[in-house]
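Session log. Operator J.P. requested a structure for one protein chain; no other inputs attached. Running the standard single-chain path with C-alpha cell output.
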Amino acid sequence: MLQRMVDEPDTIQIGGASGLNPHVGEAWVRAMRRHFAGGRLEAQEIDGVLAADLAGALWPAGLIAACRGGMPAPGALVRVVVGVDPPASAGGVCGIVVCGIDEAGIGHVLADRSAGGLSPEGWARSVVATTEAYGPDRVVVETNQGGEMVGAVLRSVDVRLPIRAVTATRGKIARAEPVAALFETGQVRLCGVFAELETELAGMVVGGYEGPGRSPDRADAMVWALWALMLERGGPPRVRET
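Structure written below.
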C-alpha cells in the first residue's frame, strides 16, 4: 500500500535516515540496528529506504495480502495445533503460533503468541497460556535446540500438555517451501494482521533467510503447525461420500 502511494503522480517523496532525526535518541537507533541488522528491513527502518520484495521471496507482500481473512466461525475448525520453536539462546524469541484447519481442508493461522526475553520457565508458561486459550489437539515442539529438555521444561509447567516432539532434518527454508505453496494455492488464510510474523515470512527466500533477527522463530513455529495439520502423512482425514 505504501508503494502504491509513492507511485501516485501527486506524491512527493522525501527521506532520511533515523540517525539524522534530532528527536530520536542514539540508544534507540543502536537498538533498532541490532534488531534489524543483516536484513532488508535495516535499510527500511534505519536508513529510510522503502524495501521491495526480495528476489525469490517465498511470501511476497502480494501473497500475504491475498491470504488475509477473518477468523473462522465458532465450531468451524476440526483440529487446532500450536507450533513451538524454542529459543536457541537465553533470552531469545520462542516462536508460538496457533493454526487450525476446517472441514473444507483450509488452514487458518489464528494467533502469534511468540514471546522473547524470557527464561525457559517463562516461555514454557507462555506456551501453556496459549494452550489454555485455544485448546489445541497437539503442541508440536521442535527439539533440535535442547533435545529432551524442551519437553521436560514444558511438562514441568503443565504435565497435561499434548506434546509431540519433532526434529528438523532439513533447513528452515526447505521445510517452509511446501507450506508457502499452500498459501499460493489458497489453502491457508491469515486470520488478521501479524506484523512480526509477516515480516519474518517476507524475509524467507529461496536459499536463505534475510529478515530481521538471526532466525525466523515465529515463521518456523507456523510452518511446524501447518505441516502437522496439512502436510504430514498426506494431510488430515477427509469424509468422502460414495
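Operator note: The two ends are 47 Å apart (CA to CA).
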